[in-house]
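Two quick folds needed for the group meeting slides. Do the first one here.
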Amino acid sequence: MTSLLLMLSWLFIIFGIIGIFKFKSFYGRLITSSKIDSAALLLILTGLALYMRDIYFTSRYLMILLFMFITNPVTTHLIAKKRHKEDEPWKP
């Protein structure tokens, strides 16, 4: 089960990288990178928690996951807000 979750996380990462290169706009690339981070991190930490089977490590993985799910949307929003305030066209 652990190896399946880790392989799925790599699949998300690979498709996300393809998506980053496919999108031309700044906001499209920003949302793609945010989704890669969230989905891959969820699968990786869930796989590691299942692998360790120890409450000490599992609780640490869940705390890291909670921290990332709180901070990732906030940082993505701040980056997009700053870019929107600059009001300059983005050049790839």
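Then this one, please, same format:
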Amino acid sequence: MRTPSYAWPCLIVSLLCAVVIVFAWQWLPGVTFPTFQGWEAQNNPTYDASLVAHVMGLVPIAAMIMVFPTSWIVRKWGPKVGTVVGMALAIVGTLISTLAVASDFMVFLVGRFVLGFGLATTVISGPTCVSIWFPHATRGRGMAIWSTWAPIGIFTINATGSQLFTLAGSDMTNLHWIILGVLAVMLVLFVVVFREPRSDEASEVSAERKGFKEVLPLFRKRQLWCLIVMFAIFNYMNYAFSQYLKSWLQLSERAGGLGWDATMAGLVGGAIVACGILAPLGGFILDKAPKHLKYLCVVAGITGLTLCCAFSFQNSLPMFALYVLFFCIGNMFLNGCCRPMVPTYLFKGGATAVALGLSFLTFGQYLGQSFTSYALDAFKHTLSQPPVDASLAFWVLVPVGAVGVVLSLMMKPSKKEAEAMKAGGGKPGGGGPGGH
């Protein structure tokens, strides 16, 4: 099947919806925690520094709660409505935070929680929107391009957050109003541009909304569940690197960091975290790999991220270069290949099965991320007790990554499945774990 030309505008607007939600979610690392804490302490009479971990931590917790209701929304009304609902929830959450950021810290946290609902709904509906437009031959690339939403958003807000805060008069309320306006504009653009494919444009993933009972038998796949658990591990590890990197780059050399100023740390740190932008290359490799060997793309990704742990946050530029190299390899493959594997396994169940599969995958994603914020908060207190340093603390992620490597290897198709795929030329009609 050829990719319909209108698939690309639909992909772009869906991607941009997720990107602007990242702005609303990740602006705090963009302006750094100390700046936020200092402003809140001066302007918010109810600010409680002991609750600061919740500012980031509540978002993935709420997202984790919302993943399965999202699959019901997509089942009932389709992925377009799902995206609209997600953006609307993000706008409501950001509005609550905007109105409370200078007056009531607990209400501000409620807004962050509601934002998490919008995040989950958007990032499950989005790749479902893509899957109904892109056929098997190009779905890896299409969904991998969509999967750059987080690195694009994180890099942009890290690189510009401090300047945007200054432009807003160094006022958190004004900063929130700017982000709120961007969310609203993007919602309108998505509603105008996105539509479901016509019958001559539809991919192998039918837009037909089947019942859950009809698609549940497709979930009896070892490979799918190994992918989901491994994805949780990937996000636990990756989120730790993303949140801590900019702060570590600014630590003095005596404290174990590189001693960079905030601007340099923001630019370099944002660029490193944004290496997930390489996801389309990972998706291209996935598309080109024989079907019985596609799992090796996932193996390469989690292996790279595990090696990255051993080289991370050490006060040595050569070690830092190795860390960046393996971090990039891990993100290229895992961002680019994990989501496209879901419709590969579940395409026969149409949009309903894909949305439910992505719900499980996203649940794993935010389960991993929800632990990270609190683990890092505890870790920062530990850092004040020498001789513990960042490199030692992140070494403990190596065995976690090793578990992920084992799970990725378990995604290998059985001998019977592999033979069926080879008999079909490795193409989607050739049998195997996709239910063909």
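Slide caption for protein two: Residues 383-388, 426-436 have pLDDT under 50 and may be disordered.
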